[in-house]
Write a structure and sequence with these properties.
Length: 100
Amino acid sequence: MASFVPTRADTIEDRRLYTQARLTEVACLDCLATVGVKKNSEHHTTIQWSEEALRACPEFSRMSQRPEGRPVREGCPRMQASIDAAARDGRIPIGAEDGY
């Protein structure tokens, strides 16, 4: 359960901008799961996974089968390769706009 639920309009808009603004859909070249991606710089990538994408990803499924479960901060290398390819091909804009 969330310990803080924003109610102010400007806070809600900030959260929307940070988590949803400028997201580009990228499909995994392996399993076709689709995520939202934003690159504020060459080295900073935000990835928004939907429940559907998490279920479709065989790598996350394999990681979840580990006795200790899937490490929260461990990503899918196949999706990362797909995002890198999309960035190289110019399909993902790089650079923050308005601080987001």
